[in-house]
Amino acid sequence: MIRALLCLLLTLIAAPVLAQAPGDRHVAMELVPETARPAAGGTVTLAFVSTPEPGWHGYWKNGGDAGVETTLKWSLPQGVTAGPLQYPVPSRLLVSGLMNYVYERPWVQFVDVAVPAGLAPGSKLPVQVQADYLVCTVEICVPEKASLRTELTVGDGAIEPATRARFDGWRRTFPKPLGSEARFAVADKRFRMAVPFPADAALGEAYFFPLQQGAIDFAAPQKVWRSGDRLLIETAAAAVGTPPGVIEGVLATGEGQGFALTAKPGPVAVAAEQASGDAAWSGALLAFGGAVLGGLLLNIMPCVFPILSLKALSLARSGADARTARGEALAYTAGVVLVCLGLGAAILALRAGGSAVGWAFQLQDPRVIVVLLALTVAIALNLSGLFEVPTPQFVGHGGSGGAFATGALAAFVATPCTGPFMGAALGAALVLPPAAALAVFAGLGLGLALPFLLLGFVPALRNRLPKPGAWMERFRRILAIPMWLTALALAWLLGEMAGNSAITWGLGAALLVGFALWFAGARQRRGRGVALAMSAAAALTIGGALTVPRAAPAQETVAGADEPFTEAKLASLRAEGRPVFAYFTADWCLTCKVNEAGAINRSAVRDEFASKKVAVLVGDWTDGDAELGRFIERHNRAGVPLYLWYAPGEASPRVLPQVLTPATLTALAGERRG
C-alpha cells in the first residue's frame, strides 16, 4: 500500500512537467458512435477507441496497486444523458511487486447515451466529452486529457453493417453477466470464492479481477480449480482494510473473455485435494477429447465414408508393406489435420475481426458450394469408373501425395456435419487461448483421421481387410451412390441459398466438369494424356464458382406453428409463462436435418408440444446471420445444431444433446404435468 501511494504521489508531482500537448499523447483516443442517427427515445452506444504507443498502457476501472481509472466530463444537449463508462476485460502487469490491471494493446470502452423521446427527426445533438486518464510505462506515468466530440442526428437508429460488425468485435472483449451469485469468505488471511460455473463450460486461464480495494492482495498468485458446477478461487486476503459486504469484479476465462460477477459473504467449502487441479488445462484437454471423438464419428457421414473406404481398400489392393502403409497413414492424417487447423485459424481470425462465424462458415458462401458440388460430382464419376486420376494419385489410389490430398478432401467435405461431442468441444475453442483453441481443431482432424491412421500402424487391422478381388470394383460403384446423394444435397442447398439462377449455374458448371472428365476418361482408355482435360475441369470449377449469381432468394416463412427465432419473441413467450423449444439449424447442416426429420417434426412430438402449448422457435443460420451467430456463441457453441429448452420458472435454458430422439422432446414437454 505504501508503494502504491508513493507511486501515485510521484505521478501527481510529475503531472505539470510530463503533461503533453494533445498531438503528443501516448494514447490516441477516438470517439465513435454505433449509429450517427439514433432514434428518439432510444439509446446509442459511444465507443472510446484507445490506441497506446508501444510500451505504454492504460488502466481498468480498478487499476490495481498503482493505477487510476478514467474520468469523463460531458457536455450534452438538454435531455440527453450518458451512462457509466464500461470497461473490457483487462490484463495483468506486475511491475516491481505491484500488480497493475491494464490494457497494453488497443482497447475500447463503451458509454450508452440515452436520447429523449419526442425529438423531431433531423434534430442535431452535439456531444462533447473530456476524458482524463493515466498512462504509464514500466518506468514512468503521465496523466493525459483528450477532448472528443461527435454530432448525432435524430433518425431511425439504423446501424451500418460495417459499423455493426466493428462494434460486435469490440463487444466480445467485454465481460458477460454471469447470471448467478457467487459467495466469498475470508479466514486465516486467505480469500476464497465459489463461483457457479457449469462443469461442461469451457475455461481458459481463469483469473479474478476485483473492482474494490480491501478484498484481496492484488499481487498474490491465485489458485483456480473446479469442483462440479463451481469454480473455486483462493488467494491471499488484503493485508489492510475490511472486505466489503459485496464484492464485484470480473472473472476472466481467457484472453479478452470473461464474466461480470457479484459475490456476497457465505460459506465456501474447499477440499485440499481439489486445490491441485489445473482448470485451464483440464478444460482444454476435455475439449480436445471431445473434438477427437466428434471427428471420429464424422467418418460415418455419407460424404466421408466412401473416401475412407476407398483409402482402406487401396491398402488391401496394393498389398503395401508396413513402411508404405505407415507413410500413407501419416500423409492422410497430415492432410486432414492441416485442413482442420486452417479452418480453425480462419474462424478465430474472422471472429477476432468481429465476424460471428462458426464451424462450416465457408458453406455460407455460394461460391464454395459450387466448388464442392463440382468436386463431389468428380469423385462420384471417378468411383463410377468414368475416369482415373493420374499422378499425383488421388482417391482410392496409393502414394503419400494422394493420401495427403485425400485426407484434405475428407476434412473439407466433412465440414457441414456436427455431431455428439463436437458442439461443446468447438464451442470451448472460442473461449480458449489461441494455441489451445487450435489444439482443439487439430483434435477434430486427428479423430477424423484416426481409422486410417490405425490401419496404417496396426498390422492386425490391415490383415482383417477383405482380400482383393472383382468385388472391389462393384463395391467402388456402390460407394458412388452416397457421393451422388451428396451432390444432390449440395445442389439443393445452392438453390435454397441463392435461388434458381444459382442452382442452374451450379448444375451447368458440374455438367461441363463432368464432360471434361468423360473426355479425360476416353483418352485414358486409348492410352493418351489427360493433363489438358483435367486442367479444363479445374478451370471450369473455378470459373463456375467465381461467376455464380449470389442474389439471395425471397425470405421463406417458417412452416406450421413454428416461428422464426428472435430474442424479443423469446422474451415475450417466456413472460407469458410458456415453455419454449428453440432450435438453430442450417440447410447445409446434415445433423440438423436428420434431427428435424427423425425427432423434431415427428407427429408424436408435435402433438405433445401442441397439447402442452410449447412454443417452437426456429433460428435459420444458413446465411450466417450475425445476430443468430452471437446468440449461438453465448451458449458455448461454434455452430449448429443448437437445441435449447426453456422451462417456465427456470432462469437459464437447458442445452439439449446434438442428437435428438422423439422421447427426449416428449419427456421435456411432459414435465409440465401436475
Automatic annotation (TrEMBL):
One of its GO terms (cellular component) is plasma membrane. GO terms for molecular function: protein-disulfide reductase activity. The chain crosses the membrane at residues 284-308, 329-348, 368-387, 394-415, 435-458, 478-495, 501-522, 529-548. The keyword Secreted does not apply. It is a multi-pass membrane protein. The lineage of its organism: Bacteria, Pseudomonadati, Pseudomonadota, Alphaproteobacteria, Sphingomonadales. It holds the Pfam family DsbD_TM. InterPro entries: Cyt_c_assmbl_TM_dom, DsbD_gamma, DsbDN, Thioredoxin-like_sf, Thioredoxin_domain. The keyword Electron transport does not apply. This is Thiol:disulfide interchange protein. It comes from Sphingomonas lenta. Keywords: Cell membrane, Cytochrome c-type biogenesis, Membrane, Signal, Transmembrane, Transmembrane helix. It is found in: Cell membrane. It comes from the Bacteria. GO terms for biological process: cell redox homeostasis; cytochrome complex assembly.
